[in-house]
Amino acid sequence: MIETIGVAPAPALLGGKWIDDGPVAERIGPFTRTVVSRAVVARPADAATAAEYAKTAARSVGRLAPATRADILDRAAALATRRRADIARLIALELGKPVKDGLGELDRVADTFAVCAAEARRIGGDVLPVAGWARGVGNTALTYRAPAGVALAITPFNAPANLLAHKLGASFAAGNSTIVKAPPQAPATSAAVVALLLEAGAPVEAVQLLHGGGDIGAALCAAPEVAVISFTGSAETGEAVARAAGAKRLVLELGGNAATIVCDDADLAAAARGCARTGYTNSGQSCISVQRIYVPRPLMNDFVDLLTAEVEALKVGDPLDPATDVGSMVDDAAAARVLSWATEAVEGGARITTGGTRDGATLSPTVVAEPAADASIVVREVFGALVTVLPFDDFDGVLATCNASRFGLQAGLFTRDIGRILTAWRELEVGGLIVNGSSNYRLDHVPFGGVKASGFGRESPHHMVEDYTVVKTLMLRGMSIWGES
Hints:
Blueprint: E1 8-10, E2 12-14, E3 17-19, E4 24-28, E5 35-40, H1 44-62, H2 66-82, H3 84-95, H4 99-122, E6 125-128, E7 140-147, E8 150-154, H5 160-174, E9 177-181, H6 187-199, E10 207-210, H7 214-222, E11 228-232, H8 235-245, E12 249-253, E13 259-262, H9 268-279, E14 292-296, H10 300-312, H11 332-347, E15 351-354, E16 358-359, E17 362-363, E18 366-369, H12 376-379, E19 386-392, H13 395-403, E20 407-408, E21 410-414, H14 418-427, E22 432-435, E23 451-452, E24 455-456, H15 461-467, E25 469-476
Parallel strand pairs: 1-5, 8-9, 8-11, 9-10, 11-12, 13-14, 13-21, 14-19, 18-19, 21-22
Antiparallel strand pairs: 2-3, 4-5, 6-7, 7-25, 12-24, 15-18, 16-17, 20-23
Helix pairs in contact: 1-7, 2-4, 2-5, 2-6, 3-4, 3-6, 4-5, 5-6, 5-15, 7-8, 9-10
């Protein structure tokens, strides 16, 4: 049963001040069907104000010693642990994400801030080997990583706390002033994460938070004061970000169409259990969620039966219930879209073995067996509580089939054969391969990102710090420990 719900405020943070008045957008909880948060929406002029303020603020943030930034991030990590229950509840209300998954996300927020703190302590530079070439003899060249200045973080709704922690934490670790453009579906969650950093001692110049739609995002992307943009979202919106940004540094983590291959030497029951648990996490609303499972043709029926049984054991319902495995999708339209694609696949000859119904924004976990190769649920990003199972006849062929997708974010592979593992690692056009696990697995301190339409750049604190900094070179003419040749 849904407990009594208070409406969470989601103020903006602009020009060093929390703003709690102005135009307001109400967020209707997809499961509760009631107003769960109210966000103060940015006006068009606010984007320019934020960019101008950030340009000046970047100077003071950049002067903070790395040790100071690291200490603040460590305190933010500790606060994330203390606030995990409150923020997980916000996530459940705003998004319909099961609270136990929200608690796990806050554990990752704490880890992410802690890793960002460690990266802040490692920022440095190099002494370059200029004396190795004749023209460099007698000189010394040094480099260090300087803050880029102003970073823009555009965050998605599906993991609003942890993905914001990645972008904001790494940007602050690098010494930047950050403008956060929050997802309209999770404004209160975004405000709560930003507040963690400020409560931990970050100067108010370090971050601003704006709520609004694509017009605000486009204005921020185009602002000349912004030096680097990190965006997570759909491929189509990512292209719009790139067009609006022009000649700026971009880190784009875009869509996916994740495949998992189950080989004939795999433990079928374990593979089915793993795919069921990860295929419907957050109702499948993850860019690496299991979407396509490829199984050897002789094992197809056995695997489908095992997967169907595992999926039917998942508990669907109230996201605030600690026992719930699958809550609602982000809104009714998202659930209706996925169901329509499933219906289209059945009309093309596929069969639904479980699920295939919805109640508002809650789509029952759905398994679709043997859809046509050109079905929407095979070639497009489903981003919902639906998994397809398809047969394959040979390993090289299934690798080619996986690569036919325009996306290339992450893949899974169940096998004990090291030859297959190395072949798949080499041949699959993806940014990451998970062996003996589904595509839906991530460690926050490990490089994460894709190829092709899945974007470019890598979202882990180490790699993001590199993207959020610029290499500055110092050349000392006529000064060298090596002397003349």
